[in-house]
Sequence to fold (389 residues):
Amino acid sequence: MKKIALKKGKENFLERKHPWIFSGAIQTATDAIEDGELVELTDFKGNFCAVGFFQPGSIAVRILTFQNRPIDQTFWDERIKKAIALRRELGLMSKENNICRLVHGEGDELTGLIVDFYNGVAIIQAHAVGMYDYREAISSALQKVMGTHLKAIYSKSAETLPERVDAKDEYLFGECETPHIAKEYGHAFSIDWTSGQKTGFFIDQRENRALLGSFSKGKKVLNTFCYSGGFSIYALANEAKEVHSIDSSAKAIELVDKNVELLDFEGTHHSIVADAVKYMNNLEDKFDVIVLDPPAFAKHKNKRHQAIKAYTRLNANAIRQVNPGGTIFTFSCSQVVDPYQFEKAVINAAIKEGRTVQILYHLHQPADHPVSAFHPEGEYLKGLILKVT
Ligand code: SAH
Fold:
């Protein structure tokens, strides 16, 4: 294994147990090291510090372990077993709930790896070349730990890795026809990982969707940036009078229609393909409940300021137009906008509109998307429930 030495004094980084080593902290020339190659990280004297993947770019090493141990099948078996044990403990792998995230990257000590589970099918998504190269070992560990609960494993990393890697999206084990029906808290969803966004479904909103259900009875609900209609299904299942689902992607709206078809409900549902940002400028209808769940407005720190302004505008539009006594579920999944900055953006929107706004809940990502205490960057989803009078 090639060695990469840290600059003198930079070994302090490791005391914080952060899984990323930035290129500026490295002393060794890395020209001869391949993207994804396993490396031993040492201090400037050559003493062992950690093992991880090399990566060209700002994050130079992604650490897998601070122990001097081989990265063999036992390593993958242990990490995957621990991650799955947590989801079982959380009660997320049952007949009524068979959608959950099995591995959430750094939050499960598996930097750059996402594994999502949809009723017997695991989707592996690598965000680091080194992780992609271990997909067979990861697949084997998943099969060992899950046994007959696993029917198929699909690898989907073409969109998350650099093009030169030429990653193929393919089944690593078994096969499963799509769309495939899986359940979240008893609600059926039709999921297609091959053609859908990300791994096919936004699992991270599960707990927030359940909360929305409790605010929906008899209400007229607007679900913007709805993707496959997760929030809409919970609203309709909880006796919302009328639900409007909006997404700019026609494909997403097709998914909403499929999911609505799977549900037995009394209210009415409308699907709309539109730019939700523009749509919110001037609503033709009046709503009691509005969901704002846009894609990340900022993917990089240098876009943070613009993103905060965009959140303020979007939230101001919702606050101004929601019915008196209405409820707004508002979210941000921009990792670079922290929960405090997001709340400030929403407070500024409330001030601008001059209505009375109460913050009822602070929302976040669920427990199957854990945040490592050593990697606070893993916290990305935040939200608020507002009551507007
Ligand atoms: N709330 C969803 C997840 C939202 S993901 C759920 O619970 O599953 C963000 C969605 O916003 C994606 O479906 C994307 O197609 C959509 N989107 C992106 N830009 C948009 C825009 N300007 N107007 C409407 N939808 C948009």
